[in-house]
Amino acid sequence: MLGSGKGSNFAAIADACARGELRAEVATVLCDVADAGILKEAATRGIKAEYIKPGTFRTKLDEEAERLYIERFLAAEVDLVVMAGFMRILKGEFLRAFSGRVVNIHPSLLPAFPGLEAWKQALEYGVKVTGCTVHFVDQGVDSGPIIAQEPVAILPTDTAQSLHERIQQVERSLYPKVVGALAEGKVVVKGRVVVRK
Known about the structure:
3-stranded parallel β-sheet, alpha/beta, 4-stranded mixed β-sheet
């Protein structure tokens, strides 16, 4: 798993694995923020976790960091790379190394509101429904094939914070289910169309 933040989606997936709800295990956690909560969450669960300096760029890994991330995941023999609040865009070499095996969750119903703070974008735009999307990662920003989505109604009383919290609750339910389906080979990609068996 890749993360940059507090680790709530990581915790939901790791705990579902520990309970036997997913036929999978979290092999390792890599993080680009030295004091991120995801590192603490992994430590409390006895899961190997490591901070790797991201390099000089603000929005992506530099070449040396990318090489280290790839090496660590290859050494851990991962079948799937799960992004859980990883706030850097993955490109080139990383996506070639794990082609078709990198997934992300995004806090909107893609293709609407890609990029940062999608819940704020939805609120400001005035839509009545937003949600979250689990998708494969490709070279674009939040543009890969969609695996699953879950809607969240926007309430008249919502603030950016309250809406974000409700979306995160849905994420913590949806993401483990999708990771479980991927682990069991129940997801097939045909072009841009994802079919669940």
